[in-house]
Amino acid sequence: MTAIETDGLTKRFGDVVAVDDVNLQVEEGEVFGFLGPNGAGKSTTINMLLDFARPTEGSATVLGYDAQDESEQIHRRVGVLPEGFDLYERLSGRKHVAFAMKTKNIDGDPDAILRRVGLSDEDARRPAGDYSKGMRQRLAFGMALVGDPDLLIMDEPSSGLDPTGINEMQELVREETERGTTVFFSSHILEHVEEICDRVGIMNRGELVAIGTLDELHDRIGGDATLELDLDDVPQRAVDDLPSIDGVTGAERRDGTVEVRCAAPTAKAEAINRVEAAGATVLDIRVEDQSIDELFEQLTGAGEPASETADGDALETEVTA
Ligand SMILES: Nc1ncnc2c1ncn2[C@@H]1O[C@H](COP(=O)(O)OP(=O)(O)OP(=O)(O)O)[C@@H](O)[C@H]1O
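== ABC transporter ATP-binding protein ==
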């Protein structure tokens, strides 16, 4: 069974198309990273999955239940860690979890859940107002785990956490997935999800512009690599000649080094041959693959003004075809 499935899911707020015809499938047991820059439509999608917002068009199922007609069943089996969750400063961690249990009509030991997320019995007795940012996140995570959900939906769980907090959050997610829980979590920072995700979906301006494993996305986008050759001498004619090789998209000379941009892996060997044929001796070779951050920037046009859509549109067609 698919844990989450959307079919043409669309949400408009007046003229703003927050979510635009999104078709998404998340399999059971999967850790799925839902990525995109601010305003991409991630929270709105999540809100529609949980029936906190109604789609303008399209539909969604969660754990096989219709998101609109069977939201009660969904809420019983899904744990949610909302973006910017609120805690009651004066209530203890234990009371928070007890409250979540009561809401879900579940008996159990709040302390056991808090221990599961790394909060001691002593922490459990302290008011949440005294908690550090990481502890607050753990508490919210614990509340989401009440009732042993089959699916955890987390909206920007790593926002505001320091690197240690992010690692801890990733560890908690890993532990839950080992129990078989499906995890769907959003982030605008690729680095926060790439370590633990089986697959990612990338949203941009309301559209799902890419979906797959990070390796698949790399492959589909072509993943340029830069070949850096340290040479004893850099013959200009060799540099000028390199772009004529199939799969080489550019070459540049920097002191004793030539940088060759290769779109095809096979182009690298030919580039080395050509340089040597021009009389240079290759002293050292380095290859830098396109970083995953560059890939993300390419897919989302991160940092570009909202009006510049042309490049993004071209790429969307390419990667979602
Ligand atoms: N209730 C609303 N009324 C009007 N516009 C809205 C509403 N909710 C969201 N939007 C708009 O819809 C678009 C998508 O917003 P959304 O919050 O889903 O993005 P996001 O990817 O979750 O962003 P962030 O990472 O900043 O939380 C944005 O342009 C936002 O301004």
